[in-house]
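Bench notes, afternoon.
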Amino acid sequence: MKLLLLACALSLPVLASAQQPVVWSIDSLNRIGGATVTVVGSPRVVDTELGKAVHFEGKGDVGDALFVDAIPLVGTLPYTWEMIFRPSSKGGAAQRIFHLQEAGSENRRLFELRIVEGKWCLDSFAGTSPPSGDPPQTAILLKCDAEHLFPLDQWYAVAAVYDGKVLRHYVNGILQGETQANLQPLGKGGASLGTRYNKKDFFTGDIFSSRFTARPLAQGELMRVPSGSGR
């Protein structure tokens, strides 16, 4: 019994560590989350109401981006992926904001946006390559009716939450949609901020931070934009 209790006690710090979120502060053009960054175009570190962030300018296949040689969610299911950002009214109709890409496969996660009638809606995407060799599967969350449109040039906290069966996405803690999904964990690869991983559909706006958690956070646990941001 003593040995069992000791084993349980020793395992608790490991389990607690695995549950700790990884936070990326997007405030540098050199390193993000301790990983090496490759710069495309001319993104800039800027001072904002929230603190330092990176500003991106782009449209279509031309623009600014940061490529990070790391994926915090490697081998992780379920998961929560969050981001605080500010989309600009100067951007294109379809933009890829943040892309996590497994090397050499179709496994990926994306935060995207669409601009409709001068406002924006969240587009969340997850693609997976089944280990059996079956065709790749995708999960897409996109609603751009009036209820799911938001003003541009303001700060927002968005989240994608996967509980092992259902993918949900949120804007400022408000559910925007959900879908059944059979996802696979991401393997080693990289991330792109400001564009799709293949340098398509560049983003215009600011990215402040991102958080990665190895469990599905409850709605009340999701990130919020700090008060005093002018949102």
